[in-house]
Amino acid sequence: MTTPQTLRDAVRRKASFGQTVRAVLWSFFGVRKRADYEADAAQLNPVHVIIVGVAAAAAFVVALLAIVKWIVG
After folding, report:
1. Which residues contact 14 (CB under 8 A, 6 or more apart)?
2. What is the full DSSP assignment across 20-70?
3. Contact 53, 24 (CB under 8 A)
4. pLDDT digits (tens, 9 = 90+) for 23-62
5. pTM for this model (two decimals)
6. d(CA 53, CA 49)
7. What letters, b where the CB count within 10 A reaches 16 and e where it falls short, cover 25-44?
C-alpha cells in the first residue's frame, strides 16, 4: 500500500513534457524497452501521464472519426 508521502514524492517528479509525451505515445504503440520503462517509472509525474494519456486518447478518437468521415463522405 502506498503512503501519502510516497504519493507526494511521485507527484514532485521532474520530467519534461516531451519525456511524458514520448512515454505515453510509446505505450500506445505497445513496444518499450524494459530499461526505458524503468527510467520513465522513476522520473515521470503520474498526474502528467494521466493528463497526456487522456489527451492522446481523445486525439486518437478524433483522428479516427475524421478518417472514417473522409472515407465515407
Report:
1. 43, 45
2. HHHHHHHHHHT---HHHHHHHHHH--HHHHHHHHHHHHHHHHHHHHHHHHH
3. yes
4. 898 888 888 888 888 888 888 888 899 999 999 999 999 9
5. 0.73
6. 6
7. eeeeeeeeeeeeeeebeeeb
